[in-house]
Amino acid sequence: KTKQLAMKIAESDLTVLLQAESGTGKELYAQAIHNHSSRNQSVFLAVNCANFQANMLESELFGYVEGAFTGAKKGGKIGLMEAAKGGTLFLDEISEMDLGLQAKLLRALQERKIRPVGGLEERDIDVRIVCACNADLEEYIRQGKFRKDLYYRLNTSVIQIPPLRQRREDIPAIIDAILNEIRHRQ
């Protein structure tokens, strides 16, 4: 049922929120949604929001202009939201994104525009966003760690991926896939 829902959502261009425990294959679902979407001829990029401090993640997502900060690359740098033009950007662990950056992401989703760090001009973007987290975002909202307006923007297409312990009937297929992969490596 989860796979069927993901393939149905893939046909739309809506933002997707994948909620699941660690190790359930959120990135595989994100890649499958991209592969079955009308954006499949363009790039799929993934970033783990938990791996970056807020300022670093902002420059990764939105890019920056020359001189935006000490150590900024000459000529600036294009951000992932622009680099994924026509494709899909997967934001893993969205729950760990800084509140200030959440506001900028919300604006980018609403306006379909970004402003690079240190820049004055906005740039149009054409990217589908697929987000994932293993946290309870509603609890994060109550604690003031996640923006309610961003949650409602992401909550339009939600896929709950059940852990393997709730879908034991999948174990034989997973074992077969692993064994086939091992056989093909030899």
Give an account of the 3D structure.
By secondary structure, the chain is α/β, with parallel strands linked by helices. Helices cover 39% and strands 15% of the residues. It has helices spanning 2-10, 26-35, 54-62, 80-83, 99-111, 137-142, 148-154, 171-185; strands at residues 16-19, 44-48, 88-92, 113-114, 123-124, 128-133, 158-160. The chain has a 5-stranded parallel beta sheet with strand order 2-3-6-1-7, with helices on one face. A hairpin with an 8-residue loop joins strand 4 (113-114) and strand 5 (123-124). Helix 1 (2-10) crosses helix 2 (26-35). The longest helix has 15 residues, at 171-185. The relative contact order is 0.20. The mean pLDDT is 92.
Mind sketching the topology for me?
Elements lengths: L1 H9 L5 E4 L6 H10 L8 E5 L5 H9 L17 H4 L4 E5 L6 H13 L1 E2 L8 E2 L3 E6 L3 H6 L5 H7 L3 E3 L10 H15 L1
Parallel strand pairs: 1-6, 1-7, 2-3, 3-6
Antiparallel strand pairs: 4-5
Helix pairs in contact: 1-2
Quaternary organization: single chain
Please list the strands of the largest sheet in the order they lie side by side.
Answer: 2-3-6-1-7
Helix content: 25-40%
Task: Please give the largest β-sheet.
Answer: 5 strands, parallel
Question: Please, what is the average pLDDT?
Answer: 92
Q: pLDDT under 50 segments (min length 5)?
A: none
Task: Please work out how many helical segments DSSP would assign.
Answer: 8
**Helix and strand sequence:** HEHEHHEHEEEHHEH
Round the Cα radius of gyration to an integer and report it: 18 Å
